[in-house]
Write a structure and sequence with these properties.
The complex is a heterodimer.
Chain A lengths: L11 H24 L1 H8 L4 H33 L3 H9 L18
Helix pairs in contact in A: 1-3
Chain B lengths: L2 H31 L10 H8 L5 H14 L5 H11 L5 H10 L5 H8 L4 H33 L7 H20 L10 H29 L2 H12 L8 H17 L1 H9 L6 H18 L1 H11 L9 H8 L3 H42 L6 H4 L3 H27 L5 H13 L2 H9 L5 H20 L11 H6 L7 E2 L2 E2 L7 H23 L4 H11 L24 H13 L1 H14 L11 H15 L1 H12 L6 H75 L5 H32 L8 E4 H12 L9 E5 L6 E4 L1 H18 L6 E9 L2 E8 L6 H4 L21 H11 L3 E4 L7 E7 L7 H6 L2
Parallel strand pairs in B: 4-6
Antiparallel strand pairs in B: 1-2, 3-5, 6-7, 7-9, 8-9
Helix pairs in contact in B: 1-9, 1-16, 2-9, 2-13, 3-14, 3-16, 4-11, 4-13, 6-7, 7-8, 7-16, 7-18, 7-19, 7-21, 8-16, 8-18, 9-13, 9-14, 9-16, 10-14, 11-12, 11-19, 12-16, 14-15, 15-16, 16-18, 16-28, 19-21, 19-23, 21-23, 25-26, 25-28, 27-28, 29-30, 30-34, 31-32, 32-34
Classes of the chains: A mainly alpha, B mainly alpha.
Amino acid sequence: MNTRRSPLFLERENYRRRRLMDGARVLPVLGFVLILLPVLWTQGGQMGTAGEAVYLFLLWLGLIIAAALLARPLRAAMSREAPRQSDAVRQSAAPESNPSPSETPDSDAPE
Amino acid sequence: MTLNILIPAALGYVIFLFAIASWAERRAEALRASGRRPRFLRSPLVYTLSLSVYCTAWTFYGAVGYAARSGLEFITIYLGPTLIFVGWWWFLRKLVRIGKAQRVTSIADLISARYGKSNMVGVIVTLLAVAATTPYIALQLQSIALSFGAFTEDQILAPRQLAMWVAAGLALFTILFGTRNLDANEQHHGVVTAIAVEAVVKLVALFAVGVWVVWGLMDGPGDMMARIAAADRPEWQVQPGRWMGLTFLAGVAIVTLPRMFQVMVVENADERHVSTASWAFPLYLMAMSLFVLPIAVAGMELLPADANPDLYVLTLPHSLGQNGLAMLAFLGGFSAATSMVIIASIALATMVSNHIVVPLWLARRRHVTDPSRAAGDMRGLVLTARRLSIGVILALGYLYFAVSGGSRALASIGLIAFVGMAQVLPALLGALYWRGASRTGAAAGLTVGAVAWLYTSFLPSFGPGVVLGADLMTYGPFGLDWLRPHALFGVVGMDPLLHALFWSLSLNGVMFIAASLVSFPSPVERVQSAQFVNAFDLDRPEDLQGARGWAREAAENDAEDLLVMSQRTLGPVEAQLFFEREARAQGKDGFLPDPTPDFLDRLERELGGSVGAATAHAMITQIVGGRLVTVDDLMAVASETAQIMEHSAQLEAKSEELARTARQLRDANEMLQKLSVQKDSFLSQISHELRTPMTSIRAFSEILMDDEVHGEEQTRYARIIHDESIRLTRLLDDLLDLSVLENGQVNLDIQPGKLSDLLDRALMASNSVLPERRFTIHRIGFDEPISLNTDIGRLTQVFINILSNARKYCVSETPEMRIFLRRQGGRVTVDFIDNGAGIEKKSQALIFEKFSRLTDTHQAGGAGLGLAICREIMLNLGGDIAYVPGQGGAAFRVTFPADLSARPAKASKAAR
């Protein structure tokens, strides 16, 4: 029942934002693959527990830094993708705001 | 150190927590009273710290023991959640969005709300959560008992008795702060703040011990690395299956564990806080894991071999005389255990009261005649139910601890709980991403998964002979060895935990998908699936067009019953405020809005925020009765939408057609205007043409009337008069000819002939026009003779006209004429192309119209009827004449059928 059509092509800013989201989605997949690496080393047997621990903690730190770098632009993207979201939050917090009629036949254009 | 110090310290810590929690409650209350939001209490920092409830005593004590036993494997328990948080954009964002939009109170509530507000699914999840959390709570009690025991080896201490007191104390704390009020949003400022403080305490404690170990006992990081390398043991080798399986399991656990769901979704104040937690929470986890391995290695080196590695954090400083540090570590472990127990029991109590106690109570009251009065004092009931539930849950935890003997490694108990809660995963993923996931599927998957988990993991965890007999463990039930709990379906030799994880989740997932595929969801379920799966397409759930749980307006007088019921659930002030606001939004005064479907939807969500979606739904249904959305309503909405879409498509097509017609009309109008101008000019032209001969005829006849003209002169004048009248006649003949042709009344004289002969005749005849010009003629395509059967005379007339025009108007110095002949099927095409200037584009459309003349010069005295006559002739002959642009000069294409008798002459006339 979703009558929105997302545009096929985007201007530069939107395009960057979409790629940022793609990056956020790729990050855990990449992290999972890298976390599985010690399994392969164990088969070889040359890395000790100490070395693996250093590797894992460095990887961990890398993931944290990457996530921290992505967090701010993603948060901005979040409020821009759904501009009325903040209203919804406010509504649930403040009882005064009057609920809008839900009869609107179609949702607004996305962006 | 003795119990004399430990017990006051623990009590003092609890009082400190108490103070923090009640300060936070009062502060939040004060801020709410002054109309502001508790900014700090609900900041991303507090949110992230409260997530640390993931790190229980299992982390604090168990991780070190785990590391001492299995090396790096402990880290998978923290890497899994790291991946989930780093990848928050995938899953957590949607989970939190839906949780807030639907006012979800627990994970069981989320699942039951999604699957048609079915209490059955909610009950299954609740029971599963209780079963999975009980050992976890037992684990916390055990760790507290153990930590007391570690200090008091010389004193006789009953760990069970101690654990009982701890459980009772925690139950009291939780009841005081977790069930103070029935908050509409099910948020607990005091508890969350206390948990955040505890997060700091346990981190500082573990850090302090770690720093002391690395820089006090060892000589810094370099030495530490060397010692870790030296302590390396064969059993520390990473086992691929467990490594991957545990990472996955921990990732699943972080979203399915009831206490994690509570702090992550239910207590979330702003969904943007998740973005901060996406990196801050992994950072916390990393900090907690940083010193685990060094502490384990130091413990293995310095403590006797029979020391329990689960307590190294505590016994290491204690045995080396660092009493202050040991006390800090003790408090850290204590806080880790208490925070888990508090949040887990709040989450479970919410589930138990919303999904088991209240529905039972409502069902018992169903036969009461007046349903609104039947509601009684819901608030009191719910709060009492929660308080009792907290007590029961802690009692169960204590019982598990007492029965299982509390002797096993902490890590394995924790993992059993993880596998239990992981059974919610298929239903949860289906809830968020698959419209087709149905209630039947969720119930089937959950049940099968839970049974598989109980059989392969939970019941065997008590040890052989306690619940499952030793014979059953070894040989399977009734001697069926393919049903052995640790070797299901012939899978022998797999790690028991992985075995349980694999079979329970596989069977669960298969059942979930299969049952979803064959079942048909109820209307409410379909509405909910749309609201969940399309969560990001909507700003508010009710914006989803047509996807409402209520289809018809309730009776006017139901509103009062609804208000009475809401007052008893939400509290009088809250409920009256809500009703008044709704009434005002509808433009009414007072407290009773019209019970429209939208209002019912909002009221249901409001109630769901405190008693859960399924219960809220049931309560409203009791009052307003069968006004639920039906399949027909859904279909009506769907067909309405389809109709609107079809309608708009039709409109679009129609408007395109209109635009096309308008353009045609405009073109026609332009043409008419041009023709009108031409006609005017033609009329003056024709008058002029007629007048010129008439003038000379009149003049010469006047002269002749004079008697002075004689003989030769008379003859000459008479000839002039004769010539002029012939010219007049010819002009009138042309006009007559044209009108005859146009009316289709012409009689065609059809006879056989050769095209080349015809063309020869035409060329010869046209030579009489401007005979001084010499044209070069190229004939192309005249290799084979083409015999015609048509009106040869008329066709010749057309050719003559075209050739004469070329002679008249071709401006070239060395005029040339190319004549192409083509024959296709029965049709002949002749192109006449000269090398002159051609005809301008704007004139091309006009040349075949009557009265049109491109030049005003009286070359050969035509009246502009030639080409118009040509076209009429060709149409009468079943052919056509057209101007072909872009040929390097004026180019006319004449097409006609070689054998006219084969087709009726009139047909082509209609084709104009």
